[in-house]
Write a structure and sequence with these properties.
The protein is built from 5 helices and 8 strands; from the N terminus they run αββαββαβαββαβ. It is of the alpha+beta class and 234 residues long.
């Protein structure tokens, strides 16, 4: 029993000594926290064009079939011009919901369907959209393709790193040190160039715009990369 008590006491004293050592260990000195940002602005090279239609009727199945027919016709026409990266075709929102009368009973059904054309070939996309007669153009959005975004992000990252290094050297000199060594660093990308959802447009009637490509003009996107961390002044 005595041996167990002595062993427990020794263990407790050992843990206490380790805790005391941690408490008395010196805190890092001459450590500087800083951050720097690199920003690159680039022309948007990705177009997203939304085409949609709405159908109404007394029977849900009938409305659904009408929407399906309109979407199938749009897909058939769009796929004729599809080209990976230049014009990609995908379906968007498809919804069907009831309409209620004054007696709170279902009086009919309303449904919508959407087709999205996306890619880097603006002329091909707008020309294809103009040929689709079963859907109307409802929105347009711009962004950066993955290739463009990766290239620009690399440039912004290199710029942020150079600014971080220059800032660290300048601050070290300002505090009277000859230089610094890197302790830890974090790199984060604030990508504002991702494709944005199509913006809704007030379009003309289908008969007035048939076979006439809608003019589009892309803007610019900014890609930001932030480098933050700490350095040891020496």
């Amino acid at each position: 029993m005595m041996k167990k008590w002595i062993a427990g006491l020794a263990l407790g004293l050992g843990a206490l000594g380790a805790s005391a050592q941690l408490l008395t260990s010196p805190q890092p000195q001459n450590v500087l926290q800083l951050s720097a940002t690199g920003t690159v602005e680039v022309q948007q090279d990705l177009l997203m064009l939304s085409l949609n239609t709405t159908r109404e009727g007394a029977d849900a199945a009938t409305v659904q079939n009408q929407l399906k027919a309109a979407l199938d016709a749009g897909l058939t026409e769009a796929k004729k011009a599809a080209l990976p990266g230049q014009l990609d075709v995908r379906t968007g929102n498809f919804s069907l919901y009831p309409r209620y009368g004054r007696d709170s009973k279902i009086s009919g059904w309303t449904g919508t369907t959407e087709l999205v054309l996306e890619g880097r070939d603006f002329a091909r996309i707008t020309a294809t959209a103009a040929k689709i007669t079963s859907l109307t153009m409802g929105g347009v959005g711009f962004g950066l393709s993955r290739e463009q975004r990766a290239r620009v992000e690399g440039e912004a990252q290199a710029l942020a790193i150079e600014r971080f290094k220059a800032k660290a050297a300048e601050l070290a000199k300002g505090f009277g040190f000859s230089g610094y060594s890197l302790r830890e660093v974090s790199v984060n990308s604030n990508d504002q160039g991702s494709p944005r959802p199509p913006r809704m447009l007030a379009m003309e009637s289908r008969s007035a715009q048939a076979d006439t490509p809608v003019p589009v003009e892309a803007g610019k996107s900014s890609v930001n990369v932030n480098v933050s961390g700490s350095v040891q002044l020496r």
